[in-house]
Design goal:
With 267 residues, the chain is mainly α. Helices cover 64% and strands 7% of the residues. The strands form two sheets. A three-stranded antiparallel sheet has the order 2-3-4. A two-stranded antiparallel sheet has the order 1-5. Strand 2 and strand 3 form a beta hairpin.
Length: 267
């Protein structure tokens, strides 16, 4: 029911209940409203419905429509207050009714910022996200700052989540040399929101696969030698190759050993 369509006084001749709607029958029109609106105004047959009353009914009915829409969103997944408000404003050109609908849902605890945060905290804990990711997520999503600022993270739980995530990714980059592997894991864990000191401690326990490291080194040595042989030769070529391999993260002692092995194959 649109406010601009509301005319003069009419009388309620009859009504029909259809699901969660009620059809009001007046002298010359049918008006469809929500059952909750009908019950709120306690409309009766033969009741006179003035224009002012119909305006109130229309506004209350719009509020009910907004609430039904927001409940539908919340049924699918959690939303915070700001997200719900923005979605409702985008769909309904009725800021006042949206605000009143939000107020009603908050009073009935259907919209609850704490519940929203708790739901996501449980998800983040289950999927091993660190505190910095969590804080940034809530801030970026427009969650109320007074709730975000009250969040407390247990140090032992943070370390446990970090260990769990570390275990799930530590073999992800075994194709890279050991230094690159550690760098990539470190970057992943930073993005996941973990404390740098916790990450460094975990990486210190990462064991190198010597055989795989030597194979990677030999492969990079051959590629580097082919690439630089067009520009350098002799001791200068060897120096450039060694520097390149060091920059890639290989240890000097292993570089020397692998170069000797590779060169002996060519003799």
């Amino acid at each position: 029911m649109q406010l601009e369509e509301i005319g003069s006084i009419r009388h309620l001749i009859n009504y029909k209940i259809k699901g969660n709607h009620v059809i009001l029958l007046t002298e010359n029109e049918k008006i469809k409203i929500f059952l909750a609106t009908f019950n709120y105004f306690k409309l009766k047959i033969n009741q006179e419905i003035s224009r002012n009353l119909l305006v109130e009914i229309a506004r209350y009915d719009k509020r009910e429509e907004v609430k039904i829409y927001l409940k539908g969103l919340l049924y699918k997944r959690p939303y915070n207050e700001k997200q719900l408000y923005q979605k409702a404003l985008a769909k309904f050109d009725s800021p006042k009714e949206v605000a009143l609908a939000m107020k009603d849902l908050k009073q009935s605890s259907i919209v609850d910022e704490k519940d929203y945060i708790d739901n996501y905290l449980e998800y983040f804990k289950k999927n091993n996200y660190g505190k910095y990711f969590i804080m940034n997520y809530f801030i970026e999503q427009g969650t109320r700052k007074d709730f975000v600022n009250k969040l407390v993270f247990n140090e032992d739980e943070e370390k446990e989540k970090a260990r769990n995530y570390f275990d799930s990714v530590k073999n992800k980059y075994v194709g890279s040399n050991f230094t690159k592997q550690k760098k990539k894991i470190y970057d992943l864990m930073i993005l996941r929101g973990f404390d740098p000191e916790v990450i460094i401690d975990l990486l210190s326990h990462l064991e190198i696969n010597t055989d795989k490291e030597r194979k990677n080194l030999a492969k990079d040595y051959r590629k580097t030698k082919i690439k630089l042989s067009n520009k350098f030769e002799g001791s200068m070529l060897e120096s450039r190759i060694v520097n390149r391999l060091i920059n890639l993260g290989y240890e000097l002692s292993m570089i020397r050993e692998v170069i000797n092995e590779e060169e002996s194959k060519n003799d």
